[in-house]
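Fig. S4 source data, part A: sequence.
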Amino acid sequence: MSKHIANLILQGEHQQLDFKHSISDSKKIARSLAAFANTDGGTLLIGVKDNGNVSGVNSDEEYYMLEGAARHYCKPEVKFIVTRWEINRKVVLEVVVKPDPKHLYRAPDKNGNWKPFFRVKDENIVATPLQVKVWKALRYKKAIRVRLTGKDELLMKYLQEHKQITVEQYSRIGFLPYARAEETLVNLVVMGIAELKMADEGEVFVLNPNSIQ
């Protein structure tokens, strides 16, 4: 087996790696392509089962469906690079998608509605309104003047002590309207001070480790 493919399989599925036994649904594969492009990029291994066993595929047929997924079921079209590997006489396609912060990619959800998707751990999820707001703020960010108020200092202290905070929590402890609390937290992401993450509690903001001195 190729050492490169073997090393990928050993990693198991994660935020930037997905295994597909085959492509039976172009719309479903489109969600993976869109999610990778909207998040951190990633690699699809087509012809590999979830448990890491190599099953192999018909490369021509799979490539045709992959191309159709990117062209017809991703808005805008997702660009990818594909490499064909032969492993023990079985074909595996390595599909690499680069992150693209310039576009917000959409694909049909299970009901056929066009939605933006993001990659969270090893799943493709429909982007929430808050995730879209953060994405747009980062995409179209403008210079933000930093002027810490008492409530901002309270927020930073809370984040340092509790490691995470939701919009609802900040709205409550800061006695702020929900929209104002949301705007402040989104601005912290734009400034590189915080990050939006998915947790058991839902969407939470955490301090960006790169901003902590």
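Fig. S4 source data, part B ends here. The CA atoms of residues 153 and 162 lie 14 Å apart.
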